[in-house]
Hints:
12 strands, GfcB, twelve-stranded antiparallel β-sheet, lipoprotein, YjbF family lipoprotein, signal
Amino acid sequence: MRGLLTLLLLLPLAACGNATGADLLRAAVWPIPLPDSLFTPSDPVPQGEWDAAEASPEDGETALALALGSRRGLARLTQAEGERRMWRTQGGVVVATDGPRVVATAGLRQVLAATRFDGGTDPLARLSEIGDGTYRSARVIDVMRSASDPARMRFGLRLDCALRAAPSPAEDTLLFEESCRGAARFTNRFWADARSYAVFRSEQWIGDDLPPLVVEVVGAPPPAEVITLPR
């Protein structure tokens, strides 16, 4: 039902060629009104760079260190409701998360507009139950190009995914791999604290023509053992 309502909300915009990633994110993901300024760069960003000047969060602040290929940025928390979080870089890249999952993006050349799980909850909320087994789930995504061309908007794309534990990279650290097939084929990876199952690093698919988005939680309590992970 949520997917149908989202589509109905966006059809008038799509018909006029005026829908943007921000419009889709507002309609499909976030229950709180989002100001236009959220998607506007605070300062001019040099070509080929992201937020190179922002190297670390402020004291006591939790932020997300983002990496997309050679681009780097620090995304600060702007809004929160329950497990949903909205993060924004100085350069205007916006990432919406639900728990550790990236569910939508804005400000990139390809936008992950919405993520909906089909008949269940996100398996990332049940990491402690996976053990040696495999947790299968289905989800539906909406994607679009950042340009407002209705022909480049794709709604209701289905993904069938399997989440399992992989060999641990270090003591007190768990690694989970999620293989997905369907509208796209990719593997997501999530590193979690073995005691709390809190995900502190991930590599997530956010579009066919983009490299995986690497997300690291910074400014929060570190996992039990500080480790260096391969990049």
